[in-house]
Design brief:
Number of strands of chain B: 15
Number of domains of chain B: 2
Order of helices and strands of chain A: HEHEHEHHEEEHHEHEHHE
Largest interface: A-B, 34 and 39 residues
Number of helices of chain A: 10
Radius of gyration of chain B: 21 Å
Distance between the termini of chain B: 66 Å
Low-confidence stretches of chain B: 7-16
Shape of chain A: globular
Strand content of chain A: 15-25%
Strand order of the largest sheet of chain B: 3-2-4-5-7-6-13
CATH superfamily of the largest domain in chain B: Thiamin diphosphate (ThDP)-binding fold, Pyr/PP domains
Structural class of chain B: alpha/beta
CATH architecture of the largest domain in chain B: 3-Layer(aba) Sandwich
Largest sheet of chain A: 7 strands, mixed
CATH superfamily of chain A: Thiamin diphosphate (ThDP)-binding fold, Pyr/PP domains
Oligomer: heterodimer
Strand content of chain B: 15-25%
């Protein structure tokens, strides 16, 4: 692509599937990157007209302000129920949810399990940063053992507060789960891999074979009380041992690019 | 042989379907479900609970082959949020449950009211509070007409008193909810849901679908993106939304519906809705036989409430007796309408008990003989 004004090649530009609204996300937060990557895929696949997104309560509650596609804002924990409603009445459209760990793995656990168990033909994007970001850094179901949050101020005590929940491994066992993978956005190669997984998931959705589920391990500099750079380092050293990136369930025969 | 069994039963109940209006003997819940399909319902989400499970059971047989999504959800909470999604995507949607299940849905109903999504919610009431009983009651009146969930919102509430109205109100419900974008509740009870009566069903296709340009169906390049939300973080904006909703609730007052029996010359006027109103018709007749000039006001819409006609009748009647299957809920709205001009008495049974005409008549007679003399 040529820029006629100065003859420089454009290698990166805003996609039309994102609005001009400034994002409310904290500096260095992974959400902005995940938004961008999903919207890039939708634009590149040319499916803007056929895609409906559902984002529930949590940091992603304003997603409809940024994603320039038809969107629904769902109640806390109920994104996949709302998405089920959308997909069942518009079965030829692409439907995805965008949920945090508190939403998907705590208050919405029932909806998460049953949506996947029904094999709803949707993509669930699960952003896991181990903390309730929007409400100010409380303990989430995915908070690591010993990790300090405002509601586990002395560190998560697994004896009284339970252990971090690997819900992605849990739902992968269900027959309705078609493609389950864990990705991240802490580095450029990781972002590229995530993009591929999202693209693959929308391709799979056409096949009507079941639910695609992508966990994105993300940083929360504000909730973790770190700089963005520190948080990405901390993510690799602490989140990955509990939430290792990689495919958990892939369709048989495996897709060519996975 | 469950399939053959189901098929035979279905054939017996339904005979030929859809094309024309037809008269049949049907159970209230099934008449309502059949009417929903004839009224062009496109999606139903439910969860089993007595005494309304026949609605889900009927629709799972007849819905899919007649073009409706029918899904048994994992909970009432999930079901109402499926309604949110499907209604937001522009479908004509219905959901049903009974009292405890309706309580579970309240958060979702508040979201639906705030996001102005059309849908019909059916409550086949049972006695409470708590798990209560599976017997009929009218104890969810407050929940239905005053809001139910959090925030300032209202539902349009229709109260059938026959199997015929269980069917007819599905059409009215879809029409009203799509016209005003206010969720409609059909507030029925376990007796009306379970009893069989003659019902004439309107033909399918008689309720046209309205355009829903706000629905999230995928964004074409020719318009801005649509989004369904109840979130407005700036209080100035949230107040504007509230003002808009309140204006709609004012507009909908003109849809008020009620039925009057012998109120012109009545000294004492019974006020009752749904099943209680049927009992009160009998009470009125028995009282008239005894020379007591009794009348009956039956609110058909509980929201909007027929306050005006009650106020009007308060000019000529000497007293009112409100009869409900609860501890006294609608009676508060009757008193607000009468506004102290005449005494308003109450007779109720609770916890799934149905008042007999004789016990209501005894109360009415005692009011006329003792209380009214000294009122």
């Amino acid at each position: 692509m040529e820029n006629s004004l100065n003859g420089l090649e454009v290698v990166y530009e805003k996609v039309e599937t994102l609005t001009d609204a400034p994002m409310h996300y904290c500096p260095g937060c992974g959400h902005g990157v995940v938004h961008r990557v999903i919207m890039e895929v939708i634009q590149e696949m040319g499916i803007t007209e056929d895609t409906i997104g559902v984002a529930p309560v949590g940091c992603s509650v304003f997603a409809y302000n940024y994603m320039n596609i038809d969107m629904q804002e769902a109640a806390h924990g109920r994104a996949t129920a709302a998405a089920t409603g959308v997909k069942r009445v518009l079965p030829e459209k692409y439907v995805f949810t965008y949920q945090g760990d508190g939403d998907l793995a705590a208050i919405g656990t029932g909806e998460t399990i049953h949506t996947v168990n029904r094999g709803e033909n949707i993509l669930m994007v699960f952003v896991n940063n181990g903390v309730y970001g929007m409400t100010g850094g409380q303990m989430a179901p995915t908070t690591l053992a010993g990790m300090k949050t405002t509601t586990s101020p002395f560190g998560r005590d697994t004896a009284t507060m339970g252990s971090p929940l690997r819900i992605t491994e849990l739902i992968a066992h269900l027959p309705g789960a078609y493609y389950v993978t864990r990705q991240s956005v802490h580095s450029a190669p990781a972002v590229r891999k995530l993009k591929k997984a999202i693209q693959q998931s929308f391709e799979y959705q056409k096949l009507k074979q079941g639910t695609c589920f992508i966990e994105v391990v993300a940083n929360c500099p504000s909730g973790w009380k770190m700089t963005p750079v520190e948080s990405n380092k901390w993510l690799v050293e602490n989140m990955f041992p509990m939430y290792p990136p990689g495919d958990i369930k892939v369709p048989k025969p495996p897709a060519a690019n996975n | 042989m469950p399939d053959e069994f189901t098929h035979n039963i279905t054939q017996k109940i339904m005979g030929s379907i859809e094309g024309n209006s037809e008269t049949k003997l049907m159970k209230g819940n099934e008449a309502l479900a059949e009417a929903a399909l004839r009224a062009g319902m496109q999606a139903y989400f439910g969860y089993p609970i007595t005494p309304q499970s026949e609605i889900l059971e009927y629709l799972i047989i007849h819905g899919p082959k007649r073009g409706s999504v029918v899904l048994q959800a994992e909970s009432e909470v999930a079901a109402i949020n499926m309604v949110y999604g499907a209604a937001g995507a522009g479908a004509r949607v219905m959901i049903s449950s009974s009292s405890p299940g309706i309580s579970l849905m309240q958060e979702g109903i508040s979201y639906i009211a705030a996001a102005e999504l059309p849908c019909v919610i059916v409550n086949i009431q049972r006695g409470g509070p708590g798990l209560g009983t599976i017997q009929p009651a009218q104890a969810d009146y407050f929940q239905a007409v005053k809001g139910g969930g959090h925030g300032d919102y209202r539902l349009i509430v229709l109260a059938p008193n026959s199997v015929q109205e269980m069917a007819d109100f599905m059409f009215d419900g879809f029409r009203l909810t799509e016209q005003y974008r206010i969720p409609v509740m059909i507030l029925s009870d376990g007796a009306l849901g379970q009893m069989m009566e003659k019902v004439t069903l309107a033909p399918a296709g008689s309720l046209p679908h309205s355009a829903k340009p706000w629905a999230t169906v995928g964004k074409p390049p020719t318009r801005e993106h649509n989004f369904i939300t109840s979130l407005h973080i700036e209080p100035e904006r949230m107040e504007e939304i509230n003002i808009h909703l309140q204006k709609k609730y004012q507009d909908v007052q003109k849809e008020v519906k009620f039925e009057l029996h012998n109120t012109d010359d009545a000294d004492i006027v019974l006020v009752a809705f749904g099943l209680s109103a049927r009992i009160c018709e009998k009470v009125m007749d028995l009282a008239r036989e005894k020379g007591i000039r009794a009348g009956l006001i039956r609110p058909i819409t509980l929201y909007p409430f027929p306050s005006e006609i009650i106020a009007q009748i308060a000019e000529t009647a000497a007293a009112f007796l409100t009869v409900e299957m609860n501890a006294g809920q609608m009676v508060e709205d009757v008193r607000l309408a009468v506004n102290g001009r005449k005494p308003v008495f109450f007779k109720g049974r609770m916890g799934g008990m149905i008042p007999t005409p004789e016990e209501v008549l005894a109360e009415l007679e005692s009011i006329v003989e003792h209380k009214l003399m000294h009122a």
